[in-house]
């Protein structure tokens, strides 16, 4: 993961992000303040990571993510925004974002978030109950399922019925690589580490 597209309507923010990315040998191959242009640049430049704000013109960041994932983009997507309410975290995760960090933290989490995404993990810090101590909010099964996108939920139903990745790709008319990406993301969101755990989860929640 080397090539990055930055989508933010504040030039100063884009410059700050670019400087931080260059510190870890990542290359900014494109910048824009507009959501619709971000979609066009993604297909034109093929970035491996997109860093996107929510409040941007024409298409907001959530709509950008939804459109890109819906059209098969499988690269990393990190939301960097001033809107850090739990509602936005969950919404971004549900449409296919790989991570979510707040501008209120002065971009201090950027490197950690990128490292997590590069390693195949999601990065979604939850609310902090105290100023200096992170207290994760336990999620029940229903909460975790709500984090899944429509495509991820469809893949989950297929996996629960024992359908192989290659057969799911034919059924959904997408590549098996894309199915594997959805599978990886849904496993992360559901906090599952094996197919046995996935099977138990689907049986427990009548998802088969």
TrEMBL record:
Q: Where is the Response regulatory domain?
A: 3-118
Point out residues bearing the modification 4-aspartylphosphate: 53
Q: Which Pfam families match?
A: GerE, Response_reg
Look up keyword Transcription regulation and say if it applies.
yes
Q: Which UniProt keywords apply?
A: DNA-binding, Phosphoprotein, Transcription, Transcription regulation, Two-component regulatory system
Secretion signal, residue range per the UniProt entry: none
Q: Where is the HTH luxR-type domain?
A: 141-206
SMART domains named among the record's database cross-references: HTH_LUXR (SM00421), REC (SM00448)
Superkingdom, natural source: Bacteria
| InterPro entries membership | CheY-like_superfamily (IPR011006), NreC/VraR/RcsB-like_REC (IPR058245), Sig_transdc_resp-reg_C-effctor (IPR016032), Sig_transdc_resp-reg_receiver (IPR001789), Tscrpt_reg_LuxR_C (IPR000792), WalR-like (IPR039420), WH-like_DNA-bd_sf (IPR036388)
Q: What is this protein called?
A: Response regulator
